[in-house]
Specification:
It contains eleven helices and no strands. By secondary structure, the protein is mainly α. The chain has one domain. The longest helix is centred in the first third of the chain and has 33 residues. It is globular, with a radius of gyration of 19 Å.
Length: about 270
């Protein structure tokens, strides 16, 4: 296994263990049998099939059509390389996520991520099986790796997944830090830079009447800065009382995993 992916797996397992002992990882409030099935299948498909296949076929295609581009960017600085990944991976993921909450057919591909009535590291990879296949950030990242930036991509993924996993966990690392007055200036900067449990939990809130909920915003994955920059940020330092989807009929297992093969439930 690639060292960076091994590191990501270890980070994921570490947060999973924290939830296992701290908040009952396998028995979350309101969970159903379908929740576990969706999470296992979507995690496995992305990790074993979708992402490796995209990287393989992008590299194969470029090696065939543009062999002269191989490692063309290998000599750029680490800061320039990180900047390219932030723009072409993280920012494009922000825009896909944002569009998924306003374009109905995209929402049907993303709804599984919000169908759970709890927050947990279990949600990190939870989406329709087709959602990640059309995520531009994975395709662009594969191109950047072909152009010679694989040496940066591993470290970038470790940082990004650590932030995302921590932001989804119901063991909110930011909650105790907000209580320390001396850290107020630092936390002001942190919560406007990266996704935190408070800002991302707000995006998963169930009820629009809950002041801590911001379902139509707080779309950032690694960088919350995109929400600040593009006007979709809401910072309350509070956490929603309930999570899930409000005002829609329950989604079937088939719809969550493979809409439109299994059509939307109109009941």
């Amino acid at each position: 296994m690639d060292p960076s992916m091994l590191a990501v797996v270890c980070i994921y397992l570490a947060f999973g263990l924290l939830e296992f002992f701290g908040s009952n990882l396998l028995h979350k409030p309101g969970q159903t049998r379908d929740d576990g099935i969706v999470e296992i299948i979507s995690f496995t498909t992305l990790s074993v099939v979708t992402q490796p296949a995209i990287i393989y076929f992008v590299n194969l295609g470029l090696a065939t059509t543009a062999p002269q581009w191989k490692d063309a960017l290998a000599g750029i600085s680490v800061w320039a390389a990180v900047g390219l990944f932030l723009v072409f991976d993280d920012m494009t993921q922000y825009w896909l996520h944002r569009m998924s909450h306003s374009v109905p057919w995209l929402y049907n591909l993303h709804r599984a991520h919000h169908n759970a009535q709890y927050m947990s590291v279990r949600l990190v990879y939870r989406n329709n099986l087709l959602y990640y296949a059309m995520m531009p950030g994975i395709w662009f990242s594969a191109v950047l790796v072909y152009l010679g930036l694989g040496w940066v991509y591993g470290g970038y993924l470790i940082v990004k997944l650590t932030v995302i996993i921590a932001a989804h966990s119901d063991l909110a690392w930011d909650r105790p830090l907000y209580r320390i007055k001396a850290l107020a200036p630092l936390m002001w900067l942190v919560e406007r830079t990266i996704s935190t449990p408070a800002t991302h939990h707000a995006h998963h809130g169930r009820h629009a009447t809950d002041p801590a909920t911001h379902y139509k915003g707080n779309y950032g994955n690694l960088l919350f800065f995109w929400d600040v920059l593009f006007g979709t940020a809401k910072i309350t330092r509070q956490y929603p009382k309930e999570f899930g989807v409000e005002g829609l009929p329950p989604a079937t297992l088939g719809q969550q995993l493979l809409w439109p093969v299994f059509p939307e439930n109109k009941a």
